[in-house]
Design a protein that fits this description.
With about 375 residues, the protein is α/β, with parallel strands linked by helices. It has nine helices and 19 strands. The strands form four sheets. Strands 1, 2, 8, 9, 10, 11 and 19 form a seven-stranded mixed sheet that branches. It has a seven-stranded mixed sheet with strand order 6-5-14-15-16-13-17, with helices on both faces. A three-stranded antiparallel sheet has the order 3-7-4. The relative contact order is 0.15.
Length: about 375
Protein backbone atom coordinates (compact mmCIF):
# COMPACT_ATOMS: atom_id res chain seq x y z
CA UNK A 1 0.00 0.00 0.00
CA UNK A 2 1.44 3.35 -1.01
CA UNK A 3 1.93 5.78 1.85
CA UNK A 4 -0.05 8.50 0.08
CA UNK A 5 -3.13 6.26 0.01
CA UNK A 6 -3.22 5.85 3.80
CA UNK A 7 -5.23 8.23 6.01
CA UNK A 8 -6.27 8.65 9.60
CA UNK A 9 -9.94 8.87 8.62
CA UNK A 10 -11.90 8.31 5.45
CA UNK A 11 -15.40 9.73 5.01
CA UNK A 12 -17.37 7.68 2.49
CA UNK A 13 -20.18 9.86 1.14
CA UNK A 14 -20.31 13.65 1.03
CA UNK A 15 -23.95 14.22 1.89
CA UNK A 16 -25.25 15.82 5.06
CA UNK A 17 -23.65 13.30 7.43
CA UNK A 18 -20.24 13.12 5.76
CA UNK A 19 -19.80 16.86 5.38
CA UNK A 20 -21.18 17.56 8.88
CA UNK A 21 -18.61 15.17 10.31
CA UNK A 22 -15.79 16.76 8.32
CA UNK A 23 -16.81 20.28 9.37
CA UNK A 24 -17.12 19.38 13.05
CA UNK A 25 -13.82 17.49 12.88
CA UNK A 26 -12.15 20.54 11.33
CA UNK A 27 -13.26 22.76 14.22
CA UNK A 28 -12.87 20.17 16.99
CA UNK A 29 -9.24 20.47 18.01
CA UNK A 30 -8.78 16.73 17.40
CA UNK A 31 -5.24 16.12 16.14
CA UNK A 32 -5.05 14.62 12.64
CA UNK A 33 -3.04 15.08 9.46
CA UNK A 34 -4.99 13.52 6.61
CA UNK A 35 -8.68 12.89 5.97
CA UNK A 36 -10.06 11.65 2.66
CA UNK A 37 -13.61 12.37 1.48
CA UNK A 38 -15.09 10.36 -1.39
CA UNK A 39 -18.38 10.50 -3.28
CA UNK A 40 -19.55 9.54 -6.74
CA UNK A 41 -21.43 12.87 -7.10
CA UNK A 42 -20.13 16.42 -7.34
CA UNK A 43 -22.76 17.82 -4.94
CA UNK A 44 -23.53 20.76 -7.21
CA UNK A 45 -27.35 20.62 -7.18
CA UNK A 46 -30.02 21.83 -4.77
CA UNK A 47 -31.41 18.32 -4.34
CA UNK A 48 -33.04 18.74 -0.93
CA UNK A 49 -34.10 21.15 1.82
CA UNK A 50 -33.71 20.49 5.54
CA UNK A 51 -36.03 21.99 8.14
CA UNK A 52 -35.75 21.33 11.87
CA UNK A 53 -36.19 23.04 15.24
CA UNK A 54 -33.53 23.79 17.82
CA UNK A 55 -33.00 25.75 21.04
CA UNK A 56 -29.28 26.16 20.42
CA UNK A 57 -28.33 29.80 19.86
CA UNK A 58 -25.21 29.06 17.83
CA UNK A 59 -24.41 26.24 15.41
CA UNK A 60 -21.50 25.57 13.09
CA UNK A 61 -23.83 25.90 10.08
CA UNK A 62 -25.31 29.30 11.07
CA UNK A 63 -23.64 30.99 8.08
CA UNK A 64 -25.85 29.01 5.68
CA UNK A 65 -29.19 29.14 7.49
CA UNK A 66 -31.50 30.31 4.70
CA UNK A 67 -34.45 31.20 6.89
CA UNK A 68 -35.38 31.06 10.57
CA UNK A 69 -38.84 31.43 12.08
CA UNK A 70 -40.25 31.83 15.60
CA UNK A 71 -43.73 30.67 14.62
CA UNK A 72 -45.37 27.94 12.57
CA UNK A 73 -48.94 26.79 12.03
CA UNK A 74 -50.73 23.44 12.03
CA UNK A 75 -53.93 22.77 10.06
CA UNK A 76 -56.36 19.89 10.14
CA UNK A 77 -60.11 19.20 10.24
CA UNK A 78 -61.65 21.41 12.91
CA UNK A 79 -58.31 22.58 14.30
CA UNK A 80 -55.96 25.29 13.07
CA UNK A 81 -53.44 27.15 15.18
CA UNK A 82 -50.45 29.46 14.86
CA UNK A 83 -47.86 28.46 17.45
CA UNK A 84 -45.21 30.55 19.20
CA UNK A 85 -42.05 28.38 19.13
CA UNK A 86 -39.91 30.16 21.74
CA UNK A 87 -37.39 29.10 22.96
CA UNK A 88 -37.15 27.07 19.74
CA UNK A 89 -36.49 28.36 16.25
CA UNK A 90 -37.67 26.60 13.11
CA UNK A 91 -34.66 26.56 10.80
CA UNK A 92 -34.23 25.94 7.08
CA UNK A 93 -31.00 24.95 5.30
CA UNK A 94 -30.93 24.50 1.52
CA UNK A 95 -28.93 21.53 0.21
CA UNK A 96 -26.83 23.42 -2.35
CA UNK A 97 -25.93 26.13 0.18
CA UNK A 98 -24.83 23.40 2.59
CA UNK A 99 -22.69 21.55 0.03
CA UNK A 100 -21.02 24.69 -1.32
CA UNK A 101 -20.26 26.12 2.11
CA UNK A 102 -18.81 22.89 3.52
CA UNK A 103 -16.71 22.10 0.47
CA UNK A 104 -15.39 25.66 0.24
CA UNK A 105 -14.36 25.72 3.90
CA UNK A 106 -12.86 22.23 3.89
CA UNK A 107 -10.80 22.89 0.77
CA UNK A 108 -9.09 25.75 2.61
CA UNK A 109 -7.66 23.14 4.99
CA UNK A 110 -4.83 21.10 3.44
CA UNK A 111 -5.54 18.17 5.78
CA UNK A 112 -8.65 17.29 3.73
CA UNK A 113 -8.47 15.58 0.34
CA UNK A 114 -11.35 14.95 -2.08
CA UNK A 115 -11.96 12.26 -4.68
CA UNK A 116 -14.95 11.78 -6.97
CA UNK A 117 -15.25 8.06 -7.64
CA UNK A 118 -17.67 5.19 -7.17
CA UNK A 119 -17.21 3.34 -3.87
CA UNK A 120 -17.41 -0.41 -4.44
CA UNK A 121 -16.57 -2.05 -1.11
CA UNK A 122 -15.72 -1.49 2.56
CA UNK A 123 -14.14 -3.84 5.09
CA UNK A 124 -12.18 -3.94 8.34
CA UNK A 125 -8.79 -5.51 8.90
CA UNK A 126 -7.06 -5.90 12.25
CA UNK A 127 -5.53 -2.41 12.23
CA UNK A 128 -7.13 -0.71 9.22
CA UNK A 129 -10.38 -0.01 7.49
CA UNK A 130 -10.19 -0.54 3.73
CA UNK A 131 -12.21 1.25 1.06
CA UNK A 132 -12.13 0.15 -2.58
CA UNK A 133 -13.29 2.28 -5.50
CA UNK A 134 -13.47 1.48 -9.19
CA UNK A 135 -9.88 2.68 -9.59
CA UNK A 136 -8.03 2.38 -6.26
CA UNK A 137 -7.82 1.02 -2.70
CA UNK A 138 -7.45 3.23 0.40
CA UNK A 139 -6.72 2.56 4.08
CA UNK A 140 -7.53 4.47 7.26
CA UNK A 141 -7.83 3.97 11.00
CA UNK A 142 -11.58 4.36 10.55
CA UNK A 143 -13.98 4.77 7.64
CA UNK A 144 -17.14 6.77 8.40
CA UNK A 145 -19.73 5.41 6.02
CA UNK A 146 -22.92 7.03 4.73
CA UNK A 147 -22.53 5.66 1.19
CA UNK A 148 -23.87 2.14 1.84
CA UNK A 149 -27.05 1.25 3.78
CA UNK A 150 -27.64 -2.32 4.92
CA UNK A 151 -31.20 -2.51 6.27
CA UNK A 152 -32.41 -5.65 8.03
CA UNK A 153 -36.21 -5.91 8.36
CA UNK A 154 -37.73 -8.85 10.22
CA UNK A 155 -41.16 -10.38 9.70
CA UNK A 156 -43.97 -8.15 11.04
CA UNK A 157 -41.73 -5.08 11.30
CA UNK A 158 -43.07 -1.91 9.69
CA UNK A 159 -40.91 -0.61 6.85
CA UNK A 160 -42.27 2.77 5.74
CA UNK A 161 -40.81 5.73 3.91
CA UNK A 162 -41.42 9.43 4.20
CA UNK A 163 -41.86 10.27 0.52
CA UNK A 164 -42.22 13.77 -0.84
CA UNK A 165 -42.13 16.12 -3.76
CA UNK A 166 -41.66 19.85 -3.33
CA UNK A 167 -42.17 22.75 -5.71
CA UNK A 168 -40.55 26.11 -5.17
CA UNK A 169 -43.17 28.38 -6.71
CA UNK A 170 -43.65 32.09 -7.29
CA UNK A 171 -47.09 33.67 -7.10
CA UNK A 172 -48.00 36.89 -8.93
CA UNK A 173 -49.75 38.03 -5.74
CA UNK A 174 -48.49 38.23 -2.10
CA UNK A 175 -50.24 35.16 -0.66
CA UNK A 176 -47.69 33.72 1.81
CA UNK A 177 -47.15 34.68 5.45
CA UNK A 178 -43.37 34.91 5.42
CA UNK A 179 -43.25 34.98 9.23
CA UNK A 180 -45.08 31.67 9.67
CA UNK A 181 -44.50 28.40 7.77
CA UNK A 182 -47.29 25.85 7.62
CA UNK A 183 -45.69 22.92 9.42
CA UNK A 184 -48.42 20.40 8.55
CA UNK A 185 -51.63 20.88 6.60
CA UNK A 186 -53.77 17.73 6.61
CA UNK A 187 -56.44 19.13 4.28
CA UNK A 188 -55.34 17.03 1.25
CA UNK A 189 -57.27 13.81 0.58
CA UNK A 190 -55.69 11.16 2.83
CA UNK A 191 -56.14 8.15 0.47
CA UNK A 192 -56.44 5.91 3.57
CA UNK A 193 -52.90 6.98 4.35
CA UNK A 194 -50.98 9.84 5.95
CA UNK A 195 -50.77 12.81 3.55
CA UNK A 196 -50.01 16.44 4.34
CA UNK A 197 -48.41 19.56 2.90
CA UNK A 198 -45.65 21.84 4.16
CA UNK A 199 -45.61 25.48 3.07
CA UNK A 200 -42.20 27.06 3.69
CA UNK A 201 -42.32 30.78 2.78
CA UNK A 202 -39.24 32.47 1.34
CA UNK A 203 -41.12 35.73 0.87
CA UNK A 204 -44.70 36.94 0.42
CA UNK A 205 -44.67 35.63 -3.16
CA UNK A 206 -42.21 32.68 -3.10
CA UNK A 207 -42.57 29.46 -1.11
CA UNK A 208 -41.55 25.83 -1.08
CA UNK A 209 -44.76 23.78 -1.14
CA UNK A 210 -44.08 20.13 -0.37
CA UNK A 211 -46.54 17.24 -0.60
CA UNK A 212 -45.54 14.49 1.84
CA UNK A 213 -46.71 11.00 2.70
CA UNK A 214 -45.90 8.36 5.30
CA UNK A 215 -46.51 4.93 3.77
CA UNK A 216 -44.87 1.72 2.60
CA UNK A 217 -44.04 3.14 -0.81
CA UNK A 218 -43.82 6.40 -2.74
CA UNK A 219 -46.44 7.48 -5.27
CA UNK A 220 -46.02 8.26 -8.94
CA UNK A 221 -44.60 11.52 -10.24
CA UNK A 222 -47.96 12.21 -11.88
CA UNK A 223 -49.75 11.78 -8.54
CA UNK A 224 -47.36 14.18 -6.81
CA UNK A 225 -47.81 16.77 -9.55
CA UNK A 226 -51.60 16.52 -9.45
CA UNK A 227 -51.66 16.78 -5.66
CA UNK A 228 -49.39 19.84 -5.64
CA UNK A 229 -51.35 21.59 -8.38
CA UNK A 230 -54.64 20.86 -6.58
CA UNK A 231 -53.27 22.32 -3.34
CA UNK A 232 -51.99 25.47 -5.05
CA UNK A 233 -55.14 26.13 -7.04
CA UNK A 234 -57.81 24.90 -4.59
CA UNK A 235 -56.32 25.49 -1.13
CA UNK A 236 -54.18 28.53 -1.82
CA UNK A 237 -56.53 29.85 -4.54
CA UNK A 238 -53.73 30.63 -6.99
CA UNK A 239 -54.99 31.36 -10.48
CA UNK A 240 -51.43 31.05 -11.75
CA UNK A 241 -47.94 30.39 -10.45
CA UNK A 242 -44.39 29.95 -11.74
CA UNK A 243 -42.43 26.78 -10.98
CA UNK A 244 -38.86 27.73 -10.02
CA UNK A 245 -37.37 24.47 -8.69
CA UNK A 246 -38.43 20.93 -7.84
CA UNK A 247 -37.15 18.33 -5.36
CA UNK A 248 -38.25 14.78 -4.68
CA UNK A 249 -37.10 11.99 -2.40
CA UNK A 250 -37.65 9.25 0.16
CA UNK A 251 -36.46 8.90 3.76
CA UNK A 252 -36.63 5.59 5.68
CA UNK A 253 -39.23 5.27 8.46
CA UNK A 254 -38.55 1.75 9.61
CA UNK A 255 -38.48 -0.57 12.59
CA UNK A 256 -35.67 -2.43 10.87
CA UNK A 257 -32.05 -2.02 11.91
CA UNK A 258 -29.33 -0.54 9.77
CA UNK A 259 -26.65 -3.16 10.31
CA UNK A 260 -22.90 -2.94 9.82
CA UNK A 261 -21.43 -5.93 7.97
CA UNK A 262 -18.14 -4.11 7.38
CA UNK A 263 -16.41 -4.66 10.73
CA UNK A 264 -15.45 -2.54 13.74
CA UNK A 265 -13.33 -0.05 11.82
CA UNK A 266 -16.22 1.06 9.61
CA UNK A 267 -18.59 3.42 11.44
CA UNK A 268 -22.01 4.02 9.90
CA UNK A 269 -23.27 7.61 9.95
CA UNK A 270 -26.28 9.46 8.56
CA UNK A 271 -29.28 7.35 7.60
CA UNK A 272 -26.98 4.30 7.46
CA UNK A 273 -26.19 4.98 11.11
CA UNK A 274 -29.85 5.17 12.12
CA UNK A 275 -30.09 8.98 12.11
CA UNK A 276 -33.42 9.17 10.26
CA UNK A 277 -36.00 9.16 13.06
CA UNK A 278 -38.31 6.20 12.31
CA UNK A 279 -41.58 7.89 13.28
CA UNK A 280 -41.06 11.19 11.40
CA UNK A 281 -38.22 10.82 8.90
CA UNK A 282 -36.45 13.87 10.36
CA UNK A 283 -32.71 13.51 9.88
CA UNK A 284 -30.65 16.74 9.88
CA UNK A 285 -30.89 17.50 13.60
CA UNK A 286 -30.19 13.89 14.58
CA UNK A 287 -27.13 13.82 12.32
CA UNK A 288 -25.73 16.83 14.19
CA UNK A 289 -26.29 15.18 17.59
CA UNK A 290 -24.76 11.91 16.39
CA UNK A 291 -21.77 13.74 14.91
CA UNK A 292 -21.15 15.59 18.18
CA UNK A 293 -21.04 12.24 19.99
CA UNK A 294 -18.53 10.88 17.45
CA UNK A 295 -16.30 13.95 17.82
CA UNK A 296 -16.39 13.62 21.60
CA UNK A 297 -15.09 10.06 21.36
CA UNK A 298 -12.29 11.19 19.07
CA UNK A 299 -11.43 13.96 21.55
CA UNK A 300 -11.32 11.40 24.36
CA UNK A 301 -8.88 9.30 22.36
CA UNK A 302 -11.04 6.18 22.67
CA UNK A 303 -9.11 3.06 21.65
CA UNK A 304 -12.28 1.15 20.83
CA UNK A 305 -14.88 3.21 18.98
CA UNK A 306 -18.48 2.75 20.11
CA UNK A 307 -21.51 3.81 18.13
CA UNK A 308 -23.64 6.45 19.85
CA UNK A 309 -27.01 4.87 20.67
CA UNK A 310 -30.52 6.26 21.09
CA UNK A 311 -32.41 5.87 24.34
CA UNK A 312 -34.50 2.70 24.28
CA UNK A 313 -37.73 4.44 25.25
CA UNK A 314 -37.66 6.56 22.09
CA UNK A 315 -37.06 3.47 19.98
CA UNK A 316 -40.16 1.93 21.57
CA UNK A 317 -42.24 5.06 20.97
CA UNK A 318 -41.27 5.02 17.30
CA UNK A 319 -42.19 1.36 16.92
CA UNK A 320 -45.61 1.97 18.45
CA UNK A 321 -46.41 4.98 16.27
CA UNK A 322 -45.30 3.17 13.12
CA UNK A 323 -47.55 0.25 14.05
CA UNK A 324 -50.51 2.60 14.58
CA UNK A 325 -49.91 4.20 11.18
CA UNK A 326 -49.61 0.79 9.56
CA UNK A 327 -52.72 -0.79 11.16
CA UNK A 328 -54.86 2.24 10.19
CA UNK A 329 -57.38 1.62 12.98
CA UNK A 330 -57.32 5.38 13.58
CA UNK A 331 -56.67 7.99 10.85
CA UNK A 332 -53.11 9.36 10.87
CA UNK A 333 -54.31 12.95 10.76
CA UNK A 334 -56.38 12.32 13.91
CA UNK A 335 -53.21 11.19 15.70
CA UNK A 336 -51.18 14.24 14.65
CA UNK A 337 -54.07 16.61 15.32
CA UNK A 338 -54.34 15.26 18.87
CA UNK A 339 -50.61 15.70 19.41
CA UNK A 340 -50.70 19.37 18.40
CA UNK A 341 -54.09 20.21 19.89
CA UNK A 342 -53.68 18.67 23.35
CA UNK A 343 -50.02 19.25 24.23
CA UNK A 344 -47.73 22.08 25.15
CA UNK A 345 -45.87 22.68 21.90
CA UNK A 346 -42.45 23.07 23.52
CA UNK A 347 -42.89 19.69 25.24
CA UNK A 348 -43.99 18.12 21.97
CA UNK A 349 -40.98 19.51 20.10
CA UNK A 350 -38.66 18.23 22.83
CA UNK A 351 -40.36 14.82 22.55
CA UNK A 352 -39.90 14.71 18.77
CA UNK A 353 -36.24 15.71 19.21
CA UNK A 354 -35.82 12.92 21.81
CA UNK A 355 -34.96 15.49 24.49
CA UNK A 356 -38.10 15.22 26.67
CA UNK A 357 -38.41 13.78 30.17
CA UNK A 358 -40.63 10.90 31.29
CA UNK A 359 -43.28 13.21 32.76
CA UNK A 360 -43.63 15.02 29.44
CA UNK A 361 -43.69 11.69 27.58
CA UNK A 362 -46.56 10.36 29.70
CA UNK A 363 -48.67 13.46 29.10
CA UNK A 364 -48.09 13.19 25.36
CA UNK A 365 -49.03 9.50 25.42
CA UNK A 366 -52.34 10.33 27.13
CA UNK A 367 -53.22 12.81 24.38
CA UNK A 368 -53.47 10.29 21.53
CA UNK A 369 -56.25 7.72 20.86
CA UNK A 370 -55.61 5.34 23.74
CA UNK A 371 -57.19 2.19 22.28
CA UNK A 372 -55.15 2.16 19.06
CA UNK A 373 -51.89 2.96 20.84
CA UNK A 374 -52.49 0.42 23.62
CA UNK A 375 -53.09 -2.33 21.05
CA UNK A 376 -49.91 -1.40 19.17
CA UNK A 377 -47.92 -1.21 22.40
CA UNK A 378 -49.02 -4.73 23.32
CA UNK A 379 -48.01 -6.03 19.87
CA UNK A 380 -44.60 -4.38 20.04
CA UNK A 381 -43.76 -5.01 23.68
CA UNK A 382 -45.15 -8.53 24.06
Amino acid sequence: MKEDLTYEYIIAGMGCAGLSLAMQLKESGVAFNRVLLLDKDLKNKNDRTWCFWTKKKTNWFDAIVFKKWRHFSFKSDGFEKRFDLEPYAYVMVRGLDFYEYCLTELKKDARFEFITDEILALKSESEWAVLNTSTQSYKAQYVFNSAFRKLSVKKNQVNYVQHFKGWLIESPEPVFDEACPVFMDFSPEQQNDCRFVYVIPFSKTIALVEYTGFSNRAISTTAYNEALDTYLTSNLKLASYKLLESEQGEIPMTEGDFTNPYGDRVINIGTAGGNSKPSTGYTFYFIQKHTEAIIQQLKNGSKQFKMPVREKRFLIYDKILLDVLNKKTVPAKKVFTALFQKNDLQHLLAFLNEESNIKQDLKIMRSVPIGAFAASAIRKLI
